[in-house]
Amino acid sequence: MGGHGHRRGMRGGKRSRDPKKTLSRLLRYIRDGYAVPFTVVLVCILFSAVANVAGSMFLQTLIDDYIAPLLLEASPVFTGLAHAILTMCLIYGVGIVSTFLYNWLMVSVSQGILKRVRDEMFERMQKLPIRYFDTHTHGDLMSHFTNDTDTLQQMLSQSVPQMFSSLMTIIAVLTGMLVTNVWLTLFVLLGVAVMLTVVKRIGGQSARFFLEQQTALGKVNGFIEEMIGGQKVVKVFCHEEQCKQQFDELNDALRESAKNANTFANILMPIMMNIGNLLYVLVAVVGGALALSGVVGNSITIGVIASFLQLTKSFTQPVTQISQQFNAIVMALAGAERIFDLMDETPEVDDGYVTLVNAKYNADGTLIETPEKTNIWAWKHPHEDGTVTYERVRGDVRFFDVDFGYDPEKIVLHDVSLYAEPGQKVAFVGATGAGKTTITNLINRFYDLADGKIRYDGININKIRKADLRRSLGIVLQDTSLFTGTIRDNIRYGYLEATDQEIEAAAQLAGADDFIRRLPEGYDTVIDGEGGSLSQGQRQLLSIARAAVADPPVMILDEATSSIDTRTEAIVQAGMDGLMYGRTVFVIAHRLSTVQNADVIMVLELGHIIERGDHAALIAQHGKYYQLYTGAFELE
Asked: With CB atoms 3.0 to 4.6 Å apart as the test, which of 41, 255, 283, 360 could cross-link to 102 if both were Cys?
């Protein structure tokens, strides 16, 4: 594409985000939309934790008050023991129901939050400028919607409730331990301090590598997406080995970060479990020693030791679970950070206030707005005093001393001035990189100028709302973009309210009607997003029909017939002439035969307009156009 001198796939500067702020932002989603169900989740988690502790503490009562006395009775009566066991069953039953309920509710909460996150992310993506998509790989963008949201889903549905459950369990168990025996509690806390030291050292290393893994995964996805899209080019130029080498390098980086992350993550859990088991044994030994020595009196009984052992297991287990979920949370926060980076990208700025409307003439000859389509377009100008005026769209486009560069350090267009009067056909020719496509990108305001002005019917295009500006411009690009759906729907994409008759008329104008009717289902034939069942020329004809149905006052044809063979081009040319009739048209073409009938031909070279005039005048000059046309200089 002419003038498109920047590289796609290079990422901009990455923000440094505080994990605490990222987590706080995630919690706001819970607060704003799911406060009630999440509160119920927390209550259920509390009930589950309390039930677990109550069951462990009741073990002391069960042994000391029921089982031990029965061992000394000649004719034991088990009625009290049965009631005690029933009480334990009820306690654990409450815990089971609470656990089931909070897990069930959390699935609904997490999926609801994920839907909202995806909606907001997609909505923000639609508002981003073209520049963003030119500087970020498509695969990396897709990774936001797949890998990053998957890690977020795991955190919300599993890690967050598990963390809350573990914290509440720790608080409840610690309370129970203090009530049961203070000395053994202090010993357990000493062991937990050792566990937390291990978590901090090993978990910190794991977190760093998980962050690297998410970034590396995005790069791998971006490369794979590019290779799938360009597979034909890869094979044509026998570039398979180089692609494999590039992929190996990216994959090695992913493997290295994933290996390090998972190594630390995988060794953490066994270490924590073994420390917990060792603490369990030491509590039994220390408890027995204290009971036999009588140092702390008679406060430590067999029931106390049994209950405390159960509480110790209940205390160390959530600490281990927290360490296990720590890595999942770190990875999810890395994904969330990437998601929020996308959400926080600066949207396309639009300060325009002039809008495009359908219009008609009153009996007195004045122009008024109308809701129905009239084939008369008008600019609607609101004024500060509250009045509104209408000006018919003529299609007069003028550049005044325009400078522009995709990179501010590398100017692509230099002091470009040109004009296209209403109904004129203006053609741009020149070598690749001369700046042809860049001019059309500026008319659409895909990019804003570095210097100079562009006026459309005398209006500075910065004052026209972007959606209305682009609606007034019909564009047929060199690269066709079709969508999964019927042929009819793909053409209707140009004007969503078009009737079937208008769609078929547009197809006839573009020369597409004949091949469409030969398809199995005609206009109702379903095609995939790549249009794989159609030839390149047929896809281009559908793109032309899509522009025709929009019926805009200005047309931009960027290599519109480059993918059509000469025979098809001859068929289409008459339709193209019909499409261009009465409109201002900008044409970019490598085939000079398609621009001979242009009113004005402009020859660009390195961002400068070096020649302008009609075909005959430029041939007579024996300049660059003459060289291009006669083949003295081959057009790239």
From this structure: 41
